[in-house]
Amino acid sequence: MKTCLDCISCFFRQALEASRMVSDDENVHKDVLQEVAKEFSDICLDEPPPSISRRVHKIVRDLTGNPDPYKEVKRKYNQMALGLYPQLRESVLASDDPLLVSIRMAIAGNIIDFGVGNSFDVEKEIEEAFHKEFATLDYSEFCDFLEKAKEVLYLGDNAGEVVFDRLLVEVIESMGKRVVYAVRGAPIINDATMDDAKECGIHENATELISTGSDAPATVLELCSPDFIDRFKSAKMIISKGQGNFEALSNEKGPIFFLFKVKCPVVAEDINHKVGDMVLSRG
Amino acid sequence: MKTCLDCISCFFRQALEASRMVSDDENVHKDVLQEVAKEFSDICLDEPPPSISRRVHKIVRDLTGNPDPYKEVKRKYNQMALGLYPQLRESVLASDDPLLVSIRMAIAGNIIDFGVGNSFDVEKEIEEAFHKEFATLDYSEFCDFLEKAKEVLYLGDNAGEVVFDRLLVEVIESMGKRVVYAVRGAPIINDATMDDAKECGIHENATELISTGSDAPATVLELCSPDFIDRFKSAKMIISKGQGNFEALSNEKGPIFFLFKVKCPVVAEDINHKVGDMVLSRG
Q: Topology of domain B71-282, per CATH?
């Protein structure tokens, strides 16, 4: 998916929010926005939004001098999600269709996204995700692929959200499949890194934890490590979690299932859905 | 009021909305945003938002080749408001306190502001303005000033909205006062120009119609004509209508009453109010 002109104002908002998280100095905030403006004064929008977002947040890190502006909020949401985990796991395992219910919960966790805004009501989101109708639900195709696959590559998304992914990973593993869970190669927004994934305990459920090798806030293949690209290309089934991974991979061929909540009007228009819609879609 | 860093993303949104109103060519939209980005890559934010907005919309006009991108929507809202006028006038004149009710209606009209967004429900706004409590209401001071003044300088705001101002102007004139109604000197966003004011029929109620002599989307004094500045400085009572005029004049000394609806979080924070609040405030 190409970046849209509407994304530009959103990048400025993100840069300002991130700068304010780590510095009280308005001159620093201003320097960041001026540098972001320089970036946009001559820009090619053929790249997907996460590629541009990557450059914007590099400016934030460089000019605030903070290598991980979202570190504290990531920890906060990792811990918050872990607090909810036992009860959610119980609900999933006690349900008629643990696979589908864990998919619903994975989508609930997708709300924890500081790229879109900085306030969200996770408990309300869980409540809604249990019952809401999917806008797209390619579930039987998902089940067919899953039946045949021995291994699933699961592209993670945000910190905190990883705990919700654990529910789905556990259900898939209980079907005798291996799940390889991929995280970002370095801190970017509140995306899950290896540290976050471990704090969320996903290594207790997934067979393997790997890194994309990139600091983009999504799986932008051109920016990933050769090792990761090999894993991606050879995967028989890929679960691509989150809107950012959709933006980055929507034009990729392959056995991909996109699993996310629509959180911005640009993506909504791209897939002819509404903001708030729940999606499990065969790529 | 100084421009806030939060305003920057809003300026990009405005520039894009305005460009799309008059051109379907995405390359033109992109050129506009790149030029706006150049503007912000080295900017001083000591000016009030309308001064910066003026430069942003000049870029839109220059690069789209359209001297008045909002011309059609201004006409649409002028006509829409004129359609509502007879009924509103009847309600005002039949009320217990026509002065206060016409102030309420003037605030209802303040919603017609394409600087803030491009969709609003005017009829809902009218309904609300009849009953809603003011967040600030310096009404007795307003009445005191009005009693003593022979002439009131009324700083207009947007097209369409002028029709709502007519109600207040008529009530003030019926008290034996002269009202001088000031409009922008050239098209900018959907702000009312002389043509708009006349289309709205304000000349049937106000004693005199004058221009600020400036193409800023508010009364930024440094940019106004010497004639207008004289009128402003010698005025014994000024009604400053709209958020933009508040942003431009909030630091001015003088017999100013600000009359507006709070429509953005930056202004809301500046005056410690909430978005949606109704304000009649002695400057």
A: Rossmann fold (3.40.50)
